[in-house]
Specification:
By secondary structure, the protein is α+β, with helices and mostly antiparallel strands. It has one domain (about 20-150). It is built from 6 helices and 5 strands; from the N terminus they run H-H-E-E-H-H-H-E-E-H-E. The longest helix has 19 residues, at about 65-80.
Length: about 150
């Protein structure tokens, strides 16, 4: 009986951890983002004031993907400006690096939405090094967890 239980437990643990973080994020993204992750690219640009998060449609993705990106990022920018980071927390978890500090500093971060020819971007600007570092850590965590669906510039 013990051997059977141990074998079943090992099989459950092995199957539960078979997915990588990137696979989990890619698969769960549809619950947060309306566009197709395989037809888009997240781009993270860290700078001296914080950074820029872009989402752009891959070549051949279609105008519907661009429209969905723009709508989603405009909504997210409005939420982020109010300190609401529920969507990224839902996808990546509440303990992602930088997130708690960004939530606390929401009033100190200027959040701006801009459309792009093939998508949209959100610019995060802050003046204190602690908040800027939190933005960089948050970008780094997203970059890592999105895997092949993201890149740094």
């Amino acid at each position: 009986m013990r051997v059977l239980f141990a074998s079943a437990l090992m099989l459950f643990v092995a199957s539960a951890t078979a997915d990588t973080t990137q696979e989990h994020v890619h698969g769960a993204a549809h619950g947060v983002m309306p566009f197709d992750m395989s037809k888009t690219m997240h781009v993270f640009v860290m700078n001296d004031e914080g950074g820029v998060q872009k989402v752009v449609a891959r070549e051949g993705a279609g105008a519907d993907q661009v429209d969905m990106i723009r709508h989603h990022l405009q909504h997210e920018a409005e939420a982020f400006a109010q300190g609401d980071f529920a969507d990224p927390a839902h996808l990546h978890g509440n303990s992602m690096p930088g997130l708690a500090d960004i939530k606390k500093a929401a009033g100190k971060i200027q959040v701006t939405y801009s459309p792009l020819p093939s998508g949209a971007q959100i610019t995060f600007q802050a003046t204190d090094i602690h908040t800027i570092t939190a933005i960089h850590r948050w970008f780094g965590a997203q970059l890592s967890e999105h895997g092949a669906d993201a890149k740094a510039e």
